[in-house]
Amino acid sequence: xxxxxxxxxxxxxxxxxxxxxxxxxxxxxxxxxxxxxxxxxxxxxxxxxxxxxxxxxxxxxxxxxxxxxxxxxxxxxxxxxxxxxxxxxxxxxxxxxxxxxxxxxxxxxxxxxxxxxxxxxxxxxxxxxxxxxxxxxxxxxxxxxxxxxxxxxxxxxxxxxxxxxxxxxxxxxxxxxxxxxxxxxxxxxxxxxxxxxxxxxxxxxxxxxxxxxxx
Length: 215
Description:
By secondary structure, the chain is α/β, with parallel strands linked by helices. 30% of the residues lie in helices and 20% in strands.
């Protein structure tokens, strides 16, 4: 099975397209991880790669608008199923401006019902769901047990900084616990929500940063 990971932002840079609002990954053969705010933009990038008919799952690492705002449109265009942790389900279905942080972007999320509600240890399209609250209460990481790749969303970035924990449902103590949780995994590479792919050592740096700054 082809389980290659494609960093879609690299594609946008290569063809001179607008950069998505968050980092978007294709986990082949059929999974899109996060959507950014503009579903049409991501669909154009999928067409550029000839993958617009291959996407069966859209997995959201959390409900924030810069990661989920394009999901509804992309579902319309691809017929893919949208999955999010159960704690984020109502944030999207109700279009909650605070929990989705859409108000920070001066807009309102066009509410929609996700298709799949995820829980800890679920496996979807070959990726294990790891609940990592702290940035938001619905934050998840996705772990490929074969390739040892971890998709972190905004739990940790490639520069060793954690996602912010001062927005609605954020919690610094939980974020530290989540980072310590994923630090125990056997990881070869991380794919983050902003800043692109990175090394797993970024997780330890993020823990030290939080413990120094907040404890």
